[in-house]
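Dear colleagues,

For the upcoming journal club I promised to circulate an example of a predicted protein-ligand complex. I picked one with CO-5-methoxybenzimidazolylcobamide because it came up in last month's discussion. The inputs are reproduced below in full, followed by the predicted structure.
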Amino acid sequence: MADDDLDLNSLNDDDLVSQMHDDLYDGLKEEIEQAVNILLARGWTPYDVLTQALVEGMRIVGEDFRDGILFVPEVLLSANAMKAGMAILRPLLAETGAPKVGKMIIGTVKGDIHDIGKNLVAMMMEGAGFEVINLGINNAVDNFLKAIDEHQPDIIGMSALLTTTMPYMKVVIDTLKEKGIRSDFIVLVGGAPLNEAFANAIGADAYCRDAAVAVETAKRLMADRQGSVQARAQA
Amino acid sequence: MSDAETLQSGRRGHGRAAKRAARMAHAAATVPFITRQIPIYEVLNEEGLSLIEQNAETVLEEVGIDFKGDPEALAIWREAGADVREERVHIPRGLCRRIIREHAPATYTQHARNPARSVVMGGKHTVFAPAYGPPFVHDLDRGRRYGTIEDFRNFVKLTYATPWLHHSGGTVCEPVDLPVNKRHLDMVYAHMRYSDKPFMGSVTAPERAADTVAMAEILFGADWIDPATGKPRTVVTSLINANSPLTWDATMLGALKVYARANQANLLTPFILAGAMAPVTVAGSTTLTLAEAMAGVAFTQLVAPSAPVILGSFASSMSMKSGAPTFGTPEPAMVMYAMAALARRLNVPFRAGGAFTASKIPDAQAAYESALTMLPACLAGTNFILHTAGWLEGGLAMGYEKFVMDADQAGMLQTMLNGIDLSENGQAMDAIREVGPGKHFLGCGHTQANFESAFHGSAIADNNSFEQWDAEGRLDQAQRANAQWKRMLQDYEPPPIDPATDDALLDFMARRKAATPDSNV
Ligand code: B1M
């Protein structure tokens, strides 16, 4: 709760949106949920709530994180608040046919238990509005396939911190190819011992050196995809 | 006088040739492992230490610790009296301590194939080993790149040639050019063949640990079994990391059991990035480290009572602003002091430290951060200091120049740990009497007898005049280190090995490699 007993209903739209930017910054989950509902009740489209209130608020968070003003535990709370807002908006966005932010499954590959970086990526992706299904550590290809079936993601994220487990990423990608479904997904890979050349060699769509780059890359590739989906639909 | 020094002509010899040869020799001089002669630096008193011990016992009993994916481990704990719920082991207060104090050896000898290079772990001793695990290597000429088996061999050779490193280490860099399922064979062989110092074994799968033990048995041949105990001699020490918080996993437990049952040493280390893997306070991460380490060490003793073991602590912290691991910061140094004292109260050898840094290159950040971890590690009374030389970039890169710089520092620290010589020669009263007021000491008998070994000289520091430094090309420390490692590799001569043993090792490897296809997964 905010320190004072502010009634969000009493704010006009502009002030409410500014307040939401502050509340996201401060990681106030319930306040964000409440405000999202208020804007929807006032007739805002889900897409406008998403872009003007939430995404813009998280853009500010991201900027201050990058500039070293915000700390990781604070961004975690902001991301949780964002996630709560998104949970309300997501079904409505789908109904209204708004462009999809995107759904990602992400896991550490088989044999590897390093998960701190992967969890940071998951957090930042949620902060950017993506729906993230975190598969945890030590994921064999079957786990990825099962999650693909169950969640129908747009993005498959893999993390590895060991040179002995990195090559397993190729096993996953090759399996997707064998099944003829590789091009249905954006495949992003990351982890400190990887590099761009490795990602290219195994047939991933991109290497992400850190969580912020993962978010940017995911947004860019989602936009490309939706562009191409739309282009295809128009053709 | 050696043959080389005896001249055909019948002259006395010595003179320039002999001295040049002796002073230029970069051969692998044997400097024994350290027996510390200075007091241990304590940061916590009895009250503080027992508070942390109490808290660690509470963690083990109340919160419990996971032993994942290893039903045998759970059965062992149940048998020992722990309350096992699914994979979570709740260990009654005092049980770990009792098991450790009853069975774990306070010290052990890790035998080297050259007995002069065997080391004693524990007690007043300190053993330095090179960095472990980096997938990349870095040098001034070629920059940063993935490590190869050639780099691996180079670092084994450099370690062999460095008097201040007493131990050959383990994964001195990752040979990314070899298949994942077989590279351990070439790594273990490199330690055996290109060095005669003690080394570490493979832990990334139980069968790779078993290969390490099999190769050690071949290498030691008739010396493998100690007739006094009927058990294998301890010739390998291997690194078993906890997956903090509060988890030991099947991979590590599998390797641990192979080694313990073969009477080989396990080094149990909670490697903690405080903030992510432990609370952000020194006391909190020390408590968690102690709880995890005690459970791991006690487990080795349940698997194989009196199997040699080291209690480890790898403390680092995470930048709360970016999530990046940080090294060489003051809080982890405090954890190290506290953990060293806590290990002493368990009466087991202790591992910590290293020349840690997050810097990418051998620069001032690298030097400061490394010094601020190595010094406390030494003052804390640490027995085994892994990562003494080469560490860059949070362990992602092994640096050639950094290696030489760190090894140089290790020599300095060794001299410091040797303490003050109070013998008659050390007191030097004869020198003071001989010289008296107003003259100098350079020519007196005592100086003549002692100058060569009097001060620990750095091989790479520049202490000359500005003009000389200028004339010599204004080289910085890293550039001088660059010349040094190249010289060391050039001068390297492998220690002799019995050809039959070598053949047997190569044959074993060839058979193991032929048994399964290459695989990277
Ligand atoms: C879309 O998808 C994406 C996109 C971006 C992605 C992404 C996925 N994943 C990551 N990113 C990117 O975004 C993140 C945020 O910005 C970044 O993630 P990072 O993970 O890089 O960064 C994190 C925020 C912080 N960084 C980290 O968390 C990793 C730090 C280091 C020090 C490290 C740690 C902490 C650990 N370790 Co490990 N460990 C090391 C690491 C050395 C290093 N400096 O990286 C490394 C990777 N480990 C190593 C080793 C050897 C090992 N470790 C082991 C164990 C552990 C701990 C359990 C102790 C612990 C992990 C705890 C945990 N829960 O994750 C063992 C293996 C266990 C296993 N089966 O996996 C063991 C084998 C050690 C042993 N003998 O027991 C080395 C690698 C060796 C190699 N040859 O490849 C190592 C370089 C350290 C070293 N020198 O030994 C980016 O890479």
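Two points we might discuss: Chain B touches chain A at residues 135-136, 146, 174, 176, 180, 204, 243, 249, 251, 273, 275-277, 318-323, 394, 396, 520-521 (CB under 8 Å). The first helix of chain B runs from residue 15 to 24.

See you all on Thursday,
B. R.
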